[in-house]
Amino acid sequence: MINTTYVLECSINGKAVAVPVPASKRMSDILRDDLLLTGTKVSCEIGRCGACMVLLDGKPVNSCLLMAYQAAGKEVTTIEGISAGEELHPVQQAMLEEGGLQCGYCTAGMVVTLTALWEKNPTPTRAEAEEALCGNICRCTGYEGIFRAVERCGLSIKREG
């Protein structure tokens, strides 16, 4: 059998990493199994639910569909890299304050997706938030708390600005 292991070199949550991995390994598995970054959840494993969402060079992607080699030389941000130490990102704080989570399984993917939206547009409309979240499924909240969190983030920016 041919050895297809190589060293994946990329940046994860702002830190350079070099991880020996099989070429066929998915990024979600590398994050969870090799790097113990278990905030990235795996659910459907076919890119439909968004629980495994990470940022790849600032853009949300399903890590269950991202092969290791596709992350080479890139910046990967997981839910663990969203906050600034103990200080929550505004999206995380708003989700907490507005009840934008229940069981928590989809929360990491939602926060990652909304963080990308917020970085691009700190005051999105509900329609823009709905479009951004079209690849994320939540089975518990009914989404209203999530959309209130988006609105709260926008209002806090408007008050500060």
From TrEMBL:
Species of origin: Paenibacillus phytorum
Protein name as it appears in the record: 2Fe-2S iron-sulfur cluster binding domain-containing protein
PANTHER family on file: OXIDOREDUCTASE WITH IRON-SULFUR SUBUNIT
PROSITE patterns the record matches: 2FE2S_FER_1, 2FE2S_FER_2
Domain (2Fe-2S ferredoxin-type): residue spans on this chain: 6-82
Record key words, sorted: 2Fe-2S, Iron, Iron-sulfur, Metal-binding, Oxidoreductase
Gene3D superfamilies hit by this protein: 3.10.20.30, [2Fe-2S]-binding domain
Keyword Oxidoreductase: yes
